[in-house]
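User
New here, explain this?
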Amino acid sequence: MNDTPVRKVIRLLLVFYLLSYFLFFLYSIYRFTTTRILSVFMWQYLFNMSMVLFLRYLLPVTVSSVMITYSLTFKIGDLYTKSGLPRPFSEIVSAPLVFFIILTALYIAALEGLNPGAASKLESEKYLSSLAREYREEWQNELDKKQYKEALKYINLYLGIDRANKNILDKREDIRLLALGQETEEKKRTEGEKTKSSSVSLNKADEYIREAEKYFNTEDFFSAHYYSALALEIDPERADAKEIAVRSWEKIKNFAASKKEREEALFFKRKQEGYKALLGGEYIKAYYIFKALKNEKPQDRDVSFYFSESSKKISGISFFLNDAEKALTLPGSDELFFVNRKKGKEIEFVFIKKMVKTEGALYFSGIESLKIDKDGKIVYFFRAPYGKYINQTIVTKCIDRENENIHKESIYIAGNRPREERNIISLNPSPAELEKLHTGYGTLNGMSFAQLWFFRKDFAKYGFPLELIENAILLKLLEPFSFLILSLFGILLGWIFRIRYVSRPPFLAYLVIPVFPVIVFFAVELYTFANRIVLGYVLVSFGFSAALVFLLVLESFLLMLAMVLLAGQLTE
């Protein structure tokens, strides 16, 4: 089987691609450290980092491979027919040219399809590792303070990220036992204090009788019966003790009925209180009242109805802290920053450290909002630990599902707002737009062409300079041209400087191979940098349309130049 030019190109490309990916994988291992990335994410991190680096440097790797192929792999015998006539150079280059057009399409597909996903996963792994370290510090702090229940909460959140960590699972069991023991001790201490405060150290039946009579006269019939029973334990035949015990028991039986009525009255009163809170707009207060009543009497229809109503009402003004903490252990979008609203000459800036989308909900953490007026003075500035997307707003008030004493809301550093607005940020961007509003303009390079094109007007609306977005679009359009043009120039330069040999290249030629990728890397970087400078200048000076036309004309010229120069090459 003839060793065709395409086979030569493909064979060396595969070698270079596999070798470069392997080297990037080794580099990723070298860079990996458990102080930055959890060990549970190690393999994901290594593969994603290797993929990002591989795609980033695929162009110089490809050009290096092509140059070496055309400078070292064509023997003199490959350039002549069996009759001894020189082969037309078109035979050597035409099939590889078609191959490189196909390879360019595959390269762009990989950049648009694989690169954004791998880069996003890397960011998520870094964020979750950082969050896990925070949880670890929190539970260590709580352990130092011997707050085992709180420590158990943070270790459970940690395990929401690092689920299979056996050491942490064992530690959780130890902390769970400590928390259980602490809770038991607290109950014993409370019961002991109650017993100590209510008990009287009496050793004789007479003293018990005196206590029983005293409690009976003050209508504390339970205590009277108790002390008379103690006296009977000492002297079962004592008549006065029996009399007090019988009389006290009769009173207790009568009191039981009235006590039940009082409990019903108290239950009804609490139900009324919850109903008034619900009507008065105190939905969170109503929620906790009806939740407690529902726990006492789950069969009460009124309580079930009003609990459901209060739950619906609070869902519009708050959310559960428990749900937010659990959701924010999942991957999401990091560090969002945008101009939210422009009212007159006032501008509001919003920063969100983390956003996570779950099924049917959108949660945030590390929220900051700053509004300034036309003179640059701060109208208000506040921070909120958590938020939830509700009806085109971020609601920052969160409550505990069980404990009404646990809640978090906006903390105002400067300025203030009306009470009904303190825990709300009215948003301009939609959830889909929010996912794209990362801080750091470098993140634009990790987005696909379709995302940049579709959201370019929205980016400008939310504070990103339009020229920056348009420049990123132009650079995306430059990528296929650069890949094909530089590959063709690689063929040209490799052919011009090819080594002529009969059976195999000289040994010294192999020593030059490791230097090729380094030289090509700097040449490709210089080419890309020059294009950036020229396109940026045209964009700023003449606008996006002119820059787009200039890009197409320039790259078409370079592509035509490469093909003309290739067509002029000879096999001799």
